[in-house]
Amino acid sequence: MYKGLEPEIATLNDTIRILGTPISKRSNDKFIYCKYRTVEVAVEKKTGKIGIIIIFDQTFKDVNGFMIGDSYEKISEALNDAGKGNAIFDKKKNVIYIFNQDLLLEEIVYGVLSK
């Protein structure tokens, strides 16, 4: 959950009510993407529910206590998972951690892609 928004439960209206008007909005055949300074929310057109939340908010502490900028090593050790390439997937809590070239956490992904 991010600021009360939960994938497969919250809607586009919930997103706008909680986060305000997005900086930009774009869409494709499956999703409407709402971009904010610290997060991007993808709402599934078919269901009207949030499908994916991509978090790059440096003040956000996720469900595992990790924050943007944490090291690959720290997260890998805590989750007992070496990951693949630049990502670690927490199967228990359905979170994907994506790292930059310096192996620092760059994005936290909640949602349908992580299932």
Characterise the protein shown here:
The chain has 115 residues and is α+β, with helices and mostly antiparallel strands. Helix content is 14%, strand content 32%. It has helices at residues 12-19, 72-79, and strands at residues 24-27, 31-35, 39-44, 50-55, 87-90, 95-99, 105-111. Strands 1-2-3-4-7-6-5 form a seven-stranded antiparallel β-sheet, with helices on one face. The longest helix has 8 residues, at 12-19. 23% of the residues are buried. The model has no long low-confidence stretch (mean pLDDT 91).
Give the gist of this structure:
This protein has 115 residues and is an alpha+beta fold.
Ends distance:
15 Å
Q: Name the poorly predicted regions.
A: none
Q: Given the helix and strand composition, which structural class is it?
A: alpha+beta
Please trace the helix and strand order, writing H or E for each element.
Answer: HEEEEHEEE
Range of helix content:
10-25%
- Spatial order of the strands in the main sheet? 1-2-3-4-7-6-5
Largest pleated sheet: 7 strands, antiparallel
Total beta strand runs = 7
**What overall geometry do the principal axes of the alpha carbons give?**
elongated
Estimate the mean pLDDT confidence. 91
Oligomer: single chain
How many helices? The count is 2
